[in-house]
Amino acid sequence: MKSKAGWVLRDSEGRYPGGVQATGRCVNNALESELQAILMAMQHAWSRGHLKICIESDNRKAVDIINGLTLHFDAYNWKREIQWWKQQFQTIQIQWIGREGNKVADKLAKHQIEDNVSFKYHYYVPRFITSELHNDYVNSI
């Protein structure tokens, strides 16, 4: 099955400059899907000139693999490619965040995009994530 990914860009003040929906390659399981989503988010951030980034994922196993806390042979190639991309940034953190803190990205990933589109950047807040973004803002104050 092709994996679906979603991520939100935020500036250093926590403001929303954009969100992304993407369809990746076919993967075998949820772990590979998450690793692919992290890789795509890194590549996208780099392509936009962001060299200091923090990636938050609600998949603790993926984060632990990337950060070298857990070994997982099946994820070796994903980890190797992510490690290469990490070197392209001045500063990068990849950390775990609870599912409650990742609702906006989850909604982006699950929301249907057109069949012939594999990447969609939202310069403006799409209507289907407004309540999650509002809740994130309210809970961060």
Automatic annotation (TrEMBL):
RNase H type-1 domain mapped to chain residues: 2-111
Domain of life: Eukaryota
Pfam families found in the cross-reference section: RVT_3
Molecular functions (GO terms): nucleic acid binding; RNA-DNA hybrid ribonuclease activity
InterPro entries: RNase_H-like (IPR053151), RNase_H-like_dom_plant (IPR044730), RNaseH-like_sf (IPR012337), RNaseH_domain (IPR002156), RNaseH_sf (IPR036397)
CDD domains: RNase_H_like
Gene3D superfamilies associated with the record: Ribonuclease H-like superfamily/Ribonuclease H
Name the record gives this protein: RNase H type-1 domain-containing protein
Organism field: Brassica oleracea (Wild cabbage)
